[in-house]
Amino acid sequence: MSDPSNTAGGAERSLGQLVASATAEMSALVHDEIALAKAELRQDVKRGAIGGLAISTAGVFVLFSLPVLSFAAAYGIHNLGLGLAWSFLIVGGAYLLLAALLGLLAVTKFKKVKPPEKSIASAKQTAAVLGSVKPHPRPVTEAAPAVARSSA
Predict the structure, then answer these.
(1) Radius of gyration of the chain (CA)
(2) How buried is 87 (Cβ within 10 angstroms: 0-12 exposed, 13-18 middle, 19+ buried)?
(3) What is the pLDDT of residues 85-97, one digit of tens each?
């Protein structure tokens, strides 16, 4: 027959071992999750950088194509029988009209922008509540020794 005191000690030890094992496995799991998150973020950053570069390059190509398309439009109008100067004026006027319409759209959208009224009201309400709160007196404890500061 085994000694009962030995069995109780063995149970505590195996419980401790289980806790230690669980802690070690949890730590390893957390480290693996962090490593996975880092790998995913690296992949997403790389994709984002490639996408940003692609959209920037596309924007440059669009910018370079505008003069070419403008000349093509002006010469196309000229081929319809209108003078070359008038053709370029029509294309330039079309660009100015488009810019004016987009500017008008922007102004109307900017006028509709309002401050976050609900957030401001909530912040004012919170400030009012916090302003009316009185601190609770703390029990007097033994003061900690002052730390000497050097002037150097």
Answers:
(1) 37
(2) buried
(3) 999 999 999 999 9
